[in-house]
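Comment thread on ticket #2218

A.B. wrote:
> Attaching the input chain for the structure job we discussed in standup.
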Amino acid sequence: MTINEASGITPYLQVAEALREAIATGEYKPGDQIPSARELADRFDVALTTAVKAVDELRANGLIETKRGRGSFVRARPELFRRGTRRYQRNPEGVAPNLQEAVAGGWHDEVTAEHWRESASEVIASRLGIPPGAPVTVARYVWLVDGQPIQVGTQYEPLALIEGTPIEEPVDGTRGNPGVIARFDSIGIHVDRVDEQTRAKNPSTEESRILQLGPGIPILHIVRTHFAGDLAVETADIAIRSDRMVVVATHDVPLSEGTPTE
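C.D. wrote:
> Ran it. Output below, let me know if you need it in another format.
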């Protein structure tokens, strides 16, 4: 491969993308050593500093790890599984769904959190059924697995619904904190429906920054809203790295009357 100077894409990103493609197609498998920066410089006819930056880019994206004195190797990247059905259920512990999945999958995960208040945009107000400009609490959670950011979710709750209650402030990222359903149960508002819409799209600049995405990696974008009857109690925008996550679903197929069972 030769670098396309007229593409407008920085040369080191072109080298990184070629290596990323080689890893994705299995040319370099988990545990394989990738060429050294000097070998890459010769192969792509670029400066050594350009090749070094390409390797740094892959390392920052979590695709490779460098072992001192030995070189850089493709990291083992186990797939992570997100429930597509039976995800939102009441349970005695009230644990959030992603923490249940982490326990089931044996992942070492952590969640960072920040929260604030703002006036609802027209989009958020429409989803929550409140007037534009009405105050909402906002919480942004970044989910990391083995130190790599995998998912960022920004959730909104109408302040008028929770002001003065024990759940007025969103929870932090501490493992074991209650999820949305358990939190609203605690104040007598019982969620009975969760709507989700999932689309593949290119990440925003902010999503790319938070998830440490290189060029060409799309995200799964989920719009989620919790309802108690017709009352929307929470809505969220969730961005997930599509190169790490598998959405799994189990669908019950009820037998109709008269269907043979043998």
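A.B. wrote:
> Thanks. Noting for the ticket: The CA atoms of residues 23 and 29 lie 6 Å apart.
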